[in-house]
């Protein structure tokens, strides 16, 4: 079942016999993404639980959908959002 943030715990407690799993989706926006000294503003942003990809099958260009949301503050970017920042990120932030 997919729900808004406030209902997940209640659903897990009250309907655990009927539900296999629950994930939360919380649309937000706008958001500012900072990468090194680059700043990208996005109009739309959505918080999701780490089990989001158990419910929805999106093809990821990079990363493992079973691991990509395991860490707090991790993010999955659309290709359009990633293109301006990722080449810069890997060149400057990871070039040691």
Summary, kept brief:
This protein has 96 residues and is of the alpha+beta class. Helices cover 27% and strands 23% of the residues. Strand 3 and strand 4 (38-42) form a beta hairpin.
Residue-averaged pLDDT: 78
Number of helices: 3
Bin the helical content: 25-40%
Low-confidence stretches: 92-96
**Principal-axes shape call:** elongated
Q: What percent strand?
A: 15-25%
Sheet with the most strands: spatial strand order: 1-2-5
Q: In total, how many domains does the architecture comprise?
A: 1
- N-to-C series of helices and strands: EHEEEEHH
Largest sheet: 3 strands, mixed
How many beta-strand runs?
Answer: 5
Structure class:
alpha+beta
The rounded Rg comes to 16 Å
Q: In angstroms, what separates the terminal alpha carbons?
A: 44 Å
Descriptive overview:
The protein starts with a strand and ends with a helix. Helix content is 27%, strand content 23%. The protein has one domain (2-93). The protein is built from 3 helices and 5 strands. It has 96 residues and is of the alpha+beta class.
Task: Describe how the helices and strands are arranged.
Layout: E1 2-3, H1 8-14, E2 23-28, E3 31-35, E4 38-42, E5 45-48, H2 52-55, H3 79-93
Parallel strand pairs: 1-2
Antiparallel strand pairs: 2-5, 3-4
List keywords for this structure.
96 residues; elongated; disordered C terminus; alpha+beta
């Amino acid at each position: 079942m997919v729900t808004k943030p406030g209902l997940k715990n209640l659903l897990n407690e009250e309907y655990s016999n009927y539900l296999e799993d629950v994930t939360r989706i919380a649309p937000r926006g706008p958001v500012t993404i900072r990468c090194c000294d680059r700043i990208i503003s996005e109009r739309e942003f959505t918080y999701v639980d780490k089990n989001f990809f158990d419910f929805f099958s999106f093809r990821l260009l990079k990363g493992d959908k079973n691991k990509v949301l395991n860490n707090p503050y991790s993010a999955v970017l659309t290709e359009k959002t990633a293109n301006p920042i990722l080449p810069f990120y890997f060149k400057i932030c990871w070039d040691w």
